[in-house]
């Protein structure tokens, strides 16, 4: 049995469009809130956390709603097409509200945009397993992650090339490029993937899964395993608290603290993204030899040290070209280490969580993982924003380093979930991580 790569790449177009949007959103909306509307960092942090707050409710709701959809176009495709169309249009209106300095209109459009994105994220993720047999879903998920990385890189390149100088540039060209990518990607998806036909083929291929025995359902979790589960979920929350604080506020940090205007910040984030992608295969190989926990501890230590170095380097992050400040090679090198560290954590954390589950409980434990990561990404923009506003922008990297260091401590006491995985059978499988 072989994975249909062409089909999987086409299915991944939905995730590509989603990742491109969120990369642009996380990079540009904080700049709009600060430079155009003069909103304090604490309030801006709350606004930036709204997508995660909404996700806690919208993702399961629309995922379940799409399960029950009986459209002739399939269960997921109506949500993907309609949600993308609405999000693309609203994303073009958002920078116009920014140019008009109309805060009420901006907030209304932002809320509508987040709702539009929430309507189709779960259906887009669910499309891949719908049209892919179970034995091939690991490789298929790797392809989906690769497509997401491509989308994120597209957004970063657009920001680097199209974002003008000054504190109030015109963001419309960037959002136009993202909207065109979203519309084009989903149009190709809708024209090439026959969801109902493919889903029917997969359902016919797969035998019904055996029901778990009553004894398996009733068996309580071992106390020591429960302790390890709680500790690793706390670790997940802590490293997301640190990492997401930087990804959410770095564009503002570069402008306010380092004095670099325009899209210079995007080069650092691009370096981190490329370094993470390049690290997945080596991380998978090393994890198979040393175990997941040791590699996570390495990643957490490297990430904490990288963030701490960002604070101590400070002036070394800036280089002057023709009298204008720009991002230095030291900053790009630092973010390359961040990408390697994040890959080391991300590849291994989710498998450790589900390793502690029974076969029938994988979905529930996946829910645990996402609940803790989403809650962290809801809280940290507000908390880190408070420190940025009331203490100073110098707090960003120490804040991130402190939380990630905390995750290192909690991970030290995890005793379960560390079955050494087999080396990835192909490069694609090395990218098969949950994020």
Report what the structure shows.
There is one protein chain. By secondary structure, this protein is an all-alpha fold. The protein has 2 domains: 1-205, Up-down Bundle (Growth Hormone, Chain: A), CATH 1.20.1250.20; 221-435, Growth Hormone, Chain: A. 76% of the residues lie in helices and 2% in strands. The chain has a two-stranded antiparallel sheet. Helix 4 (77-99) packs antiparallel against helix 5 (103-130), helix 10 packs parallel to helix 14 (362-390) and helix 11 (265-290) runs antiparallel to helix 12. The mean pLDDT is 84.
Brief account:
With 435 residues, this protein is an all-alpha fold.
Percent of residues in helices:
over 70%
CATH domain class name of the largest domain? Mainly Alpha
> What's the main sheet like?
2 strands, antiparallel
Q: What's the tally of helices?
A: 16
Proportion in β-strands: under 5%
Count of individual beta strands: 2
User: What order do the strands of the largest sheet run in, or round the barrel if closed?
Assistant: 1-2
Distance between the termini: 27 Å
Question: Average pLDDT value?
Answer: 84
Low-confidence stretches: none
CATH architecture of the largest domain: Up-down Bundle
CATH topology of the largest domain: Growth Hormone, Chain: A
* Total individual domains: 2
Q: What characteristic shape results from the CA principal axes?
A: globular
Order of helices and strands: HHHHHHHHHHHHEEHHHH
Radius of gyration: 22 Å
């Amino acid at each position: 049995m072989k994975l249909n790569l062409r089909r999987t790449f086409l299915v991944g177009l939905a995730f590509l469009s989603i990742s491109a949007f969120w990369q642009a959103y996380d990079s540009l909306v904080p700049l709009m809130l600060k430079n155009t509307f003069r909103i304090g960092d604490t309030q801006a942090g709350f606004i930036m956390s709204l997508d995660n707050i909404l996700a806690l409710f919208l993702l399961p709701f629309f995922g379940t709603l799409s399960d029950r959809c009986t459209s002739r176009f399939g269960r997921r495709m109506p949500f993907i097409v309609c949600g993308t169309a609405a999000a693309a249009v609203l994303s073009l209106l958002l920078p116009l509200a920014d140019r008009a300095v109309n805060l009420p209109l901006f907030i209304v459009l932002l809320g509508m945009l987040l709702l539009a994105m929430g309507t189709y994220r779960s259906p887009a993720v669910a499309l891949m397993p719908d049209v892919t047999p179970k034995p091939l879903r690991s490789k298929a998920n790797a392809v989906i992650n690769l497509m997401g990385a491509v989308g994120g890189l597209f957004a970063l390149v657009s920001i680097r090339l199209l974002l003008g100088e000054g504190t109030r540039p015109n963001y419309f060209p960037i959002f136009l490029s993202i909207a065109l990518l979203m519309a084009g990607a989903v149009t190709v998806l809708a024209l090439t993937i026959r969801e109902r036909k493919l889903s029917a083929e997969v359902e016919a291929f797969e035998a019904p899964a055996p029901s778990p025995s009553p004894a398996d359902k009733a068996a309580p979790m071992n106390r020591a395993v429960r302790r390890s589960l709680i500790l690793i979920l706390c670790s997940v929350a802590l490293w997301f608290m640190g990492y997401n604080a930087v990804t959410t506020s770095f564009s503002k940090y570069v402008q306010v603290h380092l004095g670099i205007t325009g899209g210079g910040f995007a080069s650092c984030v691009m370096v981190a993204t490329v370094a993470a992608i390049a690290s997945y295969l080596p991380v998978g190989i090393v994890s198979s030899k040393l175990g997941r926990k040791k590699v996570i501890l390495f990643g957490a230590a490297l990430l904490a040290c990288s963030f701490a170095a960002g604070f101590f380097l400070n002036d070394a992050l800036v280089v002057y070209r023709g009298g204008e400040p720009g991002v230095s090679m030291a900053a790009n090198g630092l973010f390359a280490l961040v990408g390697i560290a994040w890959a080391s954590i991300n590849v291994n954390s989710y498998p450790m969580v589900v390793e502690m589950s029974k076969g029938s409980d994988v979905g529930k434990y996946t829910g645990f993982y996402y609940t803790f990561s989403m809650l962290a990404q809801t809280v940290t923009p507000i908390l880190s924003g408070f420190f940025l506003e009331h203490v100073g922008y110098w707090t960003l990297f120490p804040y991130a380093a402190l939380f990630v260091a905390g995750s290192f401590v909690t991970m030290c006491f995890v005793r379960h979930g560390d079955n050494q995985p087999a080396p990835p059978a192909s490069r694609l499988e090395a990218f098969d991580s949950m994020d």
